[in-house]
């Protein structure tokens, strides 16, 4: 028997990870500064939550230099997009059942 919360993904439990994925679902990529500003988080919080999503292979991290300044950008992987859509679908089903 399937439970109503079966497809809710623990990787997206935290609001910062949910925010990162939400931004990346509607943008091809986002850099560290943009995510930090949009989500209103500290450097450390953003870095640790991005690392958690990277470890799940839900995002890829690209580091480069623009001039002499380092730039880190993030992109959602196809697996990350699929997992996030399933997570959102599961939340919508849960809300509809309530």
TrEMBL record:
This is ArsR family transcriptional regulator. InterPro entries: WH-like_DNA-bd_sf, WH_DNA-bd_dom, WH_DNA-bd_sf. Residues 16-95 form the Winged helix DNA-binding domain. Gene3D superfamilies: Winged helix-like DNA-binding domain superfamily/Winged helix DNA-binding domain (1.10.10.10).
């Amino acid at each position: 028997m399937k439970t109503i919360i079966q497809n809710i993904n623990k990787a997206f439990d935290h609001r910062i990870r949910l925010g990162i994925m939400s931004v990346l679902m509607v943008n091809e990529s986002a850099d560290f500064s943009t995510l930090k500003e949009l989500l209103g988080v500290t450097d450390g919080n953003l870095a640790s939550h991005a690392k958690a999503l990277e470890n799940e292979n839900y995002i890829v991290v690209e580091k480069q230099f623009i001039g002499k300044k380092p730039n880190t950008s993030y992109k959602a992987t196809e697996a990350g997009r699929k997992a996030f859509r399933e997570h959102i679908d599961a939340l919508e089903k849960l809300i509809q059942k309530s």
